[in-house]
Amino acid sequence: MAGFSFRSLVWWIVACLLVSLPSPTAAQLTCDTVVPYVAPCLPFTLNGGTVSDACCAGIRGLNALAKLRADRVVACQCIKNAASAFPAINVGRLNMLPRYCGVKLPVSNISPNIDCS
């Protein structure tokens, strides 16, 4: 009887672990994850000048990290919110970043009004 109870407990634990695993289509990114990747780009989007290596590294890193559609939606929403929070951001410069950094994004025009869905 003790062996049966132990085995049942083990299967129950395994079932709980499987249920608690994130869905492969659920977003793994949060704005807390996204912001550090794009923060080095803020000086360029505000003041112009040269795009920093740190900015391009962040853009490339975020692009590599956001492979799932759900993650890309989260990243888009975070960038959209950041653009809205900093009205002085030059949206034209913001949209130059992927090209300057050699990154192909699924969206062509990032703006405070973008539909991230």
Description:
- The protein has 117 residues and is mainly α.
- The protein has a domain at 29-101: Plant lipid-transfer and hydrophobic proteins (Hydrophobic Seed Protein), CATH 1.10.110.10.
- Helix content is 63%, strand content 0%.
- The chain contains six helices and no strands.
- It has helices spanning 2-20, 31-38, 42-47, 53-65, 69-85, 91-101.
Short description:
By secondary structure, this protein is mainly alpha-helical. It is 63% helix and 0% strand.
Name its key features.
117 residues; mainly alpha; Hydrophobic Seed Protein; disordered N terminus
Summarize the topology.
Elements: H1 2-20, H2 31-38, H3 42-47, H4 53-65, H5 69-85, H6 91-101
Kindly, what is the distance between the CA atoms of the first and last residues, rounded to a whole number of angstroms?
Answer: 53 Å
Number of strands: 0
- Binned, the helix content reads 55-70%
Low-confidence stretches at least 5 residues in length (pLDDT < 50)? Answer: 1-24
Strand content: under 5%
CATH superfamily of the domain at 29-101: Plant lipid-transfer and hydrophobic proteins
CATH topology of the domain at 29-101: Hydrophobic Seed Protein
Write down the Rg: 20 Å
Q: Describe the biggest sheet?
A: none
Q: How does the overall form come out from the CA principal axes? A: globular
- The class by helix and strand makeup works out as mainly alpha
Distinct helical segment count: 6
Taking all residues together, what is the mean pLDDT?
Answer: 79
What is the chain-wise order of helices and strands?
A: HHHHHH
CATH architecture of the domain at 29-101: Orthogonal Bundle
Task: Please give the CATH class of the domain at 29-101.
Answer: Mainly Alpha
